Amino acid sequence: MLLSGLQEADPAIAAGCAEALRQHGALPTDAIDTLTAQFAGGNPSNWTVGLAGHLPGKHLAGAVADLQQTAPELHYAITVLWSFTESWIARRWELQPVAGFPDIGNTQ
Fold first, then answer.
1. Residue 14 in contact with residue 6, Cβ under 8 Å?
2. What is the pLDDT along the chain (108 residues), one digit of tens a residue?
3. Residues 37, 79, 83: CA angle, nearest 5 degrees
4. Does residue 27 form part of some domain?
5. What is the pTM of this model?
6. For the chain, what is the domain count?
7. According to the lineage, what is the superkingdom (predicted)?
């Protein structure tokens, strides 16, 4: 149900489905297969791409690697999202979305 919601025309429904799936964490194999089929279909929704970028790369690595030849823009988008979500910036962003940065003074 949530996977089909990623294709909804109503952006609120698609966003809600993507966020619910993202928060679920590890998806079952059939859900991963459905996501990769949406990539292969050639026109995945923005929410499908965003969800893929927030899932652990090990689950989608093969399917995303295949996109390098068939859909290089999509391959690039997902790998950039992976780079961000695996970085220290993303971990800090999730823990403290309104974090304040200390004033370290003027270094000039």
1. yes
2. 788 888 888 999 999 999 998 888 778 888 888 888 888 777 888 888 888 888 888 888 888 898 899 889 999 999 998 888 878 766 666 555 555 656 666 555
3. 140
4. yes
5. 0.70
6. 1
7. Bacteria
